[in-house]
Write the structure tokens for this entry.
Amino acid sequence: MRFTQASSKYGIPKGTLYDNILGKSKRMMVLEEAALDNAEETAVLEFCCDISVSPYNRRTKKSLNAILNFVEKLRRQRDPGFSFTGLSGFRWWWAFCKKHGIVSLYFNDENDNE
């Protein structure tokens, strides 16, 4: 049964079904894996967004690769072995965007090493 069919049949919003089946809470738990403190999260926001100009509906100024490298560098100060593997970096970024209201990702070629 599709989400829309189940939504109509049982009177449950599609978003609720989607979140419960795919695990919305688990998608946000990836933030805990990086375990950034408040100061580090602010540093990431300042690195990737102009938060003083646009505190809401933020847009990034950096590529995903540059942002993940920045986060790894921050975390390695406390945990030298920290790194994102596989899709964990993208999943972390998705959850970070949801948490901080980031609405778009700057795209640059894969050679961006800022």
About this structure: The two ends are 46 Å apart (CA to CA). Helices lie at 3-10, 14-22, 24-34, 38-48, 64-76, 88-100. The beta strands are 58-59, 102-104. The first helix runs from residue 3 to 10.
